[in-house]
């Protein structure tokens, strides 16, 4: 009996040692990075906090101070007067789809789409975008890969999953010879499940929305008017009824999140806003009255100025199909008018790019993303344009409520307790916003979630 008792005592002793060892590992202090001698654009204020120091602990910002910070053992990055700012947030991306959608859905394997999307995600992070909102197409799979431990990297991803579109809507990418999946026994292409959910009527709208949440969507995207890139839907057409939009809003509200809509015309934007939509994509044809309504209701507007105003007529004609070119041309002169109305009535402007190109050109197109900042600067100034891509963008993510998987800290700001998504820029971005359009040269440090992905200083 004494032998058995002794063995039991040894077993308990070894167990205690094992637990103690595990506890010691778990209690190890998180890694620290100290940025010294930096001028901070915090994502909110118009000016820079000069001669500041910023301490990152783990994946969060611990301290922002103009006084010296003592952090023994921290990795020290001497900014030497460079600008430290929040990572950029692109709130209108489509990571997993490419032009032309009506042909790519048949001619490119889903495996090819996935491979292209992964390279795009890596490139977006290295271009300074630490967060993106994907508003149509599969992206949850990509988010899970990036958040896992298999060595993939890219920005934080918030995905709407499949577009919700009516038959012959902006998200209906079938060719003329293809049957409607709802009339012919079910889906015939992976696009019809992962990229575009064709829905006619309140019941089908609810089904599409709920199916997207089942996939892991953080918000919903619905088409309520015609678009430039689609073949068969004219810009003037309304898509979805007030009742159908209200059904999507209801499904999203039941999940404690929101619907964003694609809308170009004044009528389509107003229909969506009156149905309770808080976030509008595009809106190049809004009138003063609708802009006023948007401002009163606190609606966010995410224009895509560079995709329209950044093209010459010659380049647009070469890049777009004849039908798409005609639609592009019809909104070119109207976008500045819509922007002036939105600014006048206090509509909150959010940064987004909506970059779509052919599969073998999309990485090069993604490198032009920051050009949208220069377009926004014309209306908002440099600080306002940067807010649109940082703190104001984060306000939209806040609308996702408990569906946001990243709840540890604030986003889009350099502040104590915020996520350590940071860019160190070689120059003053408030004096020269174009610095961000050459990320390879001017972004000397890129940090996401406290992890350094680029550092050309050390």
From TrEMBL:
It comes from the Bacteria. InterPro entries: Amidohydro-rel, Metal-dep_hydrolase_composite, Metal_Hydrolase, Metallo-dep_Hydrolase, OTAase-like. Pfam families: Amidohydro_1. The keyword Zinc does not apply. Keywords: Signal. Residues 83-447 form the Amidohydrolase-related domain. GO terms for molecular function: hydrolase activity, acting on carbon-nitrogen (but not peptide) bonds. The keyword Zinc-finger does not apply. Residues 1-26 form the signal peptide. This is D-glutamate deacylase. It comes from Ruegeria atlantica.
């Amino acid at each position: 009996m004494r032998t058995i008792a002794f063995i039991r005592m040894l077993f308990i002793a070894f167990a205690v040692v094992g637990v103690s060892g595990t506890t010691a590992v778990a209690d190890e202090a998180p890694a620290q990075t100290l940025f010294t001698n930096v001028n901070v654009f915090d994502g909110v204020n118009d000016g820079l906090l000069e001669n500041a120091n910023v301490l990152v602990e783990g994946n969060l910002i611990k301290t922002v101070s103009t006084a010296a910070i003592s952090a023994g053992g921290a990795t020290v990055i001497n900014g030497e007067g460079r600008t430290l700012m929040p990572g950029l947030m692109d709130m209108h991306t489509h990571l997993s789809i490419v032009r032309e959608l009506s042909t790519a859905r048949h001619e490119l394997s889903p495996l090819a789409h996935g491979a292209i999307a992964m390279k795009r995600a890596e490139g977006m992070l290295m271009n300074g975008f630490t967060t993106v909102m994907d508003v149509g197409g599969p992206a949850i799979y990509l988010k899970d890969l990036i958040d896992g431990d298999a060595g993939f990297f890219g920005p934080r991803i918030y995905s709407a999953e499949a577009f919700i579109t009516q038959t012959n809507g902006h998200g209906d990418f079938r060719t003329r010879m293809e049957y409607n999946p709802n009339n012919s026994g079910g889906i015939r292409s992976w696009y019809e499940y992962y990229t575009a959910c064709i829905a006619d009527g309140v019941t089908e709208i609810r089904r599409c929305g709920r199916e997207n949440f089942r996939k892991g969507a953080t918000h919903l995207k619905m088409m309520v008017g015609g678009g430039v890139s689609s073949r068969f839907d004219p810009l003037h057409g309304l898509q979805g009824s007030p009742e159908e939009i209200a059904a999507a809003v209801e499904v999203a509200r039941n999940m404690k999140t929101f619907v964003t809509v694609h809308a170009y015309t004044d009528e389509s934007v107003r229909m969506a806003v009156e149905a309770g939509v808080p976030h509008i994509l595009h809106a190049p044809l809004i009138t003063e009255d609708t802009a006023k309504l948007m401002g009163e209701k606190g609606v966010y507007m995410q224009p895509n100025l560079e995709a329209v105003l950044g093209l010459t007529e010659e380049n647009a004609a070469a890049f777009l199909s004849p039908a798409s070119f005609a639609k592009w041309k019809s909104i070119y002169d109207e976008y500045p008018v819509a922007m002036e109305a939105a600014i006048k009535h206090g509509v909150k402007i959010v940064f987004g790019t909506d970059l779509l190109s052919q599969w073998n050109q999309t990485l090069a197109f993604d490198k032009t993303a920051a050009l949208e900042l220069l377009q926004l600067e014309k209306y908002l100034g440099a600080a306002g344009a940067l807010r649109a891509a940082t703190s104001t963008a984060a306000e939209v993510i806040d609308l996702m409520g408990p569906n946001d998987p990243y709840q540890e800290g604030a986003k889009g700001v350099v502040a104590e307790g915020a996520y350590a998504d940071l860019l160190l820029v070689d120059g003053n971005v408030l004096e020269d916003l174009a610095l961000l359009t050459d990320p390879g040269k001017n972004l000397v440090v890129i940090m996401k979630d406290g992890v350094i992905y680029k550092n050309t200083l050390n």
